[in-house]
Amino acid sequence: MKNKQFTNKGIMIVKGILQEDETVHGKDFTLFYGDMRKAKETIRKKQAVILYEQVECVHSFFGLLDKLSQPARIEYGAVIREGVRLKEDAVILMGAIVNKDAMIGKRTMIDMNAVIGSGAQIGDDVHVGAGAVIAGMMEPACTTPVIIEDGVFIGANAVVAEGVRIGHHAIIGAGSVVLHDVEARAVMIKAPAEKIRERTVDDEQRLCINQTLRKKEVGDHFFDETMD
């Protein structure tokens, strides 16, 4: 990252027409986009009046992901950094944060206020509960990303430490702290997490995902089905 330029991205609308790079013009206003330091210097020299300002990031190594290009459902308020890969029908709920170079699998839901650290690799049909934290690779430095295999359920406010691998269809109980690898279909609770048993048929029924919630577009039938 030592050769990467810091970014100070945002948008700004000023009164009047200013012919500059990275601008869009309306009838009597100019919209600046891109580097806000450059825009501020131009506006200061022109003595223009700022009508609206929104800064995306300041002194950041990484920008934000282009959400509209993704095959996923992303709710308002989710923060997703550039380099993240979202697979088809993934769901990122409000307040969730997904850091650089993480991968979110098909139909996986990242619940409200969950944090997915840099480089984390999360499989298909996973549910990461509200407030859960999946460690990243940047700080503290770690050479191995967290890997969460298909079908895993992670309860609210659970923590998965850096470098941990969680086997397919494991269950991590709410508030648990996972410090070591977890075998497939294990049910883990406590801090630090301990295995208490294997995943059962009852667990499958209780934790089955709602496929309708994973769809990017739903019609009126969704409300009919969920409110019966």
General description of the model:
Keywords: Amino-acid biosynthesis, Diaminopimelate biosynthesis, Lysine biosynthesis, Repeat, Transferase. InterPro entries: Hexapep, Hexapep_transf_CS, Trans_hexapeptide_repeat, Trimer_LpxA-like_sf. This is 2,3,4,5-tetrahydropyridine-2,6-dicarboxylate N-acetyltransferase. The protein has 228 residues and is mainly beta. It has 2 domains: 9-55, no CATH class; 67-206, 3 Solenoid (UDP N-Acetylglucosamine Acyltransferase, domain 1), CATH 2.160.10.10. It is built from 3 helices and 23 strands. It has helices spanning 36-46, 201-206, 220-226, and strands at residues 9-15, 23-25, 29-35, 50-55, 73-74, 79-80, 85-86, 91-92, 97-98, 103-104, 109-110, 115-116, 121-122, 127-128, 133-134, 147-148, 153-154, 159-160, 165-166, 171-172, 177-178, 186-189, 194-198. It has an 8-stranded mixed beta sheet, with no helix packed on it. A 6-stranded parallel beta sheet has the order 6-9-12-15-18-21, with no helix packed on it. A 5-stranded parallel beta sheet has the order 7-10-13-16-19, with no helix packed on it. A hairpin with a 3-residue loop joins strand 2 and strand 3 (29-35). It starts with 8 loop residues before the first strand and ends with a helix.
